[in-house]
């Protein structure tokens, strides 16, 4: 790198806003959100089942802990021959990671529904499934969203690593536009946008939680 | 293709176990960088967590900084630091420390904050003050969460130390980089599986630490922030 190279060349940023910056940002958003959504789709039924049938939880919990210890970065490379350069190479490892955060939070959220709430719901005539969908899951929303926030922020930050297997949205910007050309501007842009994206998603999830738990409004903020 | 068979054949070749590119050397490099990064991160994360948790001041600031650091893309930090300091251990340590401090700091802070006020009253009633309360009460009670933070960080660090190979200083990631470049897939599998095994070993190590380090009365509590 030339010694007088500035950290950010604004003219490069302005002339590359659409491509690659915009396209890689959109790609990054897509690759980091799909695993969180898939993770939630799997974690909700699995967590509900574990909360209901307690004997299921210890083996599931152990399995999740093992999955958690399997690094996404190693999975990216192990999956390459099976999924090659398709999105699945990034999506599968990240989904596995989000499961390790989401399942314990779904179970934990359902566990902390107070017994009197459950009994009151039964008393006013909720059948088990309706009680689950309309009372227990809504009460568990704050804990589930807390898990979603951790999973989403981690996912946004981890997608970049998939640049090493030729995917990865902003990671591509960092690796091919920045590092391989010894050019710091795309690296700085990639880092800043990645952090901004994580915060935007985190903020959106907080708003989602407010919208889903209207009864918590007006109470003291936690 | 059978992953297990590939790995077994690769690891079984005698030349893998000798010389400067052999498994023992690469393994030692990998564990060395990881341990150094984790040590630095623990020093920063645990001390800041204890300080903010014990005094109750600066906790919000620390948590906010930890959140920003958590969102940092690791390879961005790595490659940016490389451009300024050149190839070497500094960029790898910078990237790994940025990765490891947030979970350690946040869990330590939450652990110390979460110590029951009644317990603190009791400790004061027994004549403990300031540092004594911290060391004799808050740290032992917060230990499950502190260990959880360290475990999360350690697993991520041994996994991510793989990137050291991308800036030319070896480690198990070397097999992944070289294998990809030479299109020798068994080598990529070998390196990846060794990283997975190392991460699992770290998980087991922390299970044992929790088993023998945490007071029996506290072991059932503490779910914490991952």
UniProtKB/TrEMBL annotation, chain A:
CDD domains: TM_PBP2. The chain crosses the membrane at residues 33-53, 60-82, 88-108, 139-167, 187-208. It holds the Pfam family BPD_transp_1. SUPFAM superfamilies: MetI-like. The keyword Transmembrane applies. GO terms for cellular component: plasma membrane. Residues 25-210 form the ABC transmembrane type-1 domain. Gene3D superfamilies: MetI-like. Keywords: Membrane, Transmembrane, Transmembrane helix, Transport. One of its GO terms (biological process) is glycine betaine transport. This is Osmoprotectant transport system permease protein.
From TrEMBL, chain B:
It holds the Pfam family BPD_transp_1. Residues 27-206 form the ABC transmembrane type-1 domain. It is a multi-pass membrane protein. PROSITE patterns: ABC_TM1 (PS50928). The keyword Membrane applies. The keyword Ligase does not apply. This is Osmoprotectant transport system permease protein. The chain crosses the membrane at residues 31-51, 72-101, 133-150, 157-177, 189-209. It comes from Allonocardiopsis opalescens.
């Amino acid at each position: 790198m030339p010694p007088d190279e500035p950290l950010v060349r604004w003219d490069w940023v302005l002339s590359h806003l659409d491509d690659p910056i915009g396209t890689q940002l959109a790609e990054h958003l897509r690759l980091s959100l799909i695993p969180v959504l898939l993770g939630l789709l799997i974690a909700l039924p699995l967590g509900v089942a574990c909360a209901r049938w307690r004997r299921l939880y210890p083996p599931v919990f152990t399995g999740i802990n093992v999955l958690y210890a399997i690094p996404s970065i190693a999975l990216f490379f192990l999956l390459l021959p099976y999924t090659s350069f398709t999105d699945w190479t990034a999506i599968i490892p990240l989904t596995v990671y989000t499961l390790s955060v989401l399942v314990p939070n779904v179970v934990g959220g359902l566990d902390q529904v107070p017994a009197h709430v459950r009994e009151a719901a039964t008393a006013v005539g909720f059948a088990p499934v309706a009680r689950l969908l309309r009372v227990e899951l809504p009460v568990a929303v704050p804990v589930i969203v807390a898990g979603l926030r951790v999973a989403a922020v981690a996912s946004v930050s981890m997608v970049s690593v998939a640049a090493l297997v030729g995917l990865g949205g902003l990671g591509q910007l960092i690796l091919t536009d920045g590092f391989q050309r010894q050019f710091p501007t795309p690296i700085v842009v990639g880092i800043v946008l990645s952090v901004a994206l994580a915060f935007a998603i985190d903020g959106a999830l907080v708003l989602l939680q407010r919208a889903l738990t209207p009864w918590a409004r007006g109470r003291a903020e936690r | 293709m059978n992953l297990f068979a590939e790995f077994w054949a690769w690891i079984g070749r005698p030349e893998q176990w000798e010389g400067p590119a052999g498994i023992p050397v690469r393994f030692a490099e990998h564990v060395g960088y990881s341990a150094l990064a984790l040590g630095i991160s623990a020093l920063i994360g645990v001390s800041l967590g204890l300080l903010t948790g014990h005094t109750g001041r600066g906790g919000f600031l620390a948590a906010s900084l930890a959140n920003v650091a958590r969102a940092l893309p690791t390879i961005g930090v790595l490659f940016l630091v490389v451009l300024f300091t050149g190839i070497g251990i500094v960029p790898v340590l910078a990237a790994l420390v940025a990765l490891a401090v947030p979970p350690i700091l946040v869990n330590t802070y939450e652990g110390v904050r979460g110590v029951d006020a009644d317990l603190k009253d009791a400790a004061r009633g027994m004549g403990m003050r300031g540092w004594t309360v911290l060391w004799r009460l808050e740290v032992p009670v917060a230990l499950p969460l502190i260990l959880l933070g360290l475990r999360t960080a350690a697993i991520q660090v041994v996994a991510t130390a793989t990137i050291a190979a991308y800036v030319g200083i070896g480690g198990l990631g070397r097999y992944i980089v070289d294998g990809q470049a030479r299109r020798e897939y068994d080598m990529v599998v070998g390196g990846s599986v060794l990283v997975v095994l190392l991460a699992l070993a770290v998980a087991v190590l922390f299970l044992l630490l929790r088993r023998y380090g945490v007071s029996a009365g506290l072991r059932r509590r503490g779910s914490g922030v991952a």
